[in-house]
Amino acid sequence: MSKIEISAQDREFMRQAIRLSAESVANGGGPFGAVVVKDGKVIAGRSNSVTLDNDCTAHAEVNAIREACRVLGTFDLSGCDIYTSCEPCPMCLGAIYWAHISRIFYAADRSDAAAVNFDDDFIYQELDKPLSQRSTPLIPILRDEALKTFQAWEAKSDKTAY
Amino acid sequence: MSKIEISAQDREFMRQAIRLSAESVANGGGPFGAVVVKDGKVIAGRSNSVTLDNDCTAHAEVNAIREACRVLGTFDLSGCDIYTSCEPCPMCLGAIYWAHISRIFYAADRSDAAAVNFDDDFIYQELDKPLSQRSTPLIPILRDEALKTFQAWEAKSDKTAY
Description:
162 residues, 5 strands, globular
């Protein structure tokens, strides 16, 4: 990776994400915020609402990505950057890859999150293990039956791929 | 991990997930389905709606977990199992960990998904790399400012942790 120059605008976008994280703590949400930026403009900014919305997937990054998709009317956020107050967990990093986001700016990291009792680092460690050694069992079943759906998908001429 | 016995009921739950995946292809969605089960009952079943909903996070597992959270009124799905027609991608696996789901049954796997041009395996490979070698750059910035939010979170006596 070539050295990336951090600009004053990058710092301003990150400060918006950090402000969202601080407001979230004040409002009873989790201590995380994220903004999605395209062409130098913030198009979505959200905080973590797991406990407020009773939704374990409602991390700041996922919320901001979903909002950006709504705003732009697309599932493809190519050309967007994300600024998140903490390094994305595996769920959020996966969402960022599916979104085709270009660059990830983060402030605190997974060890900082672990220090205030969030599971990000634990989940990263789990993903590093072979499936058979994970704490949550992964059990294969009926693969042949599921493959029929993939064959139907392959054969479909008018599908929308992503 | 001890050997897990697969029951006729497990196969029936998985067949529900596979049916959802097949219906999704017919309806123009992605070829994936998932159900969340608690106490022997399906409490949520959803298919992939990334392209139908213009939401790159709308994988079958994330959709089913979000629905299960709504149905149960909680962000904690402890005691639930998930049956998914394809091995969860890192985003969905992360969501499953955050949900505290007990067991993951899957049918097709990441290589099957790669064979029909989905990025699951690519994203797993990315997560295996050091941050500096990823195709999507991860850029640290303003950590000290973000840590103030974590300090506020730590100091908050009435917080809802997760």
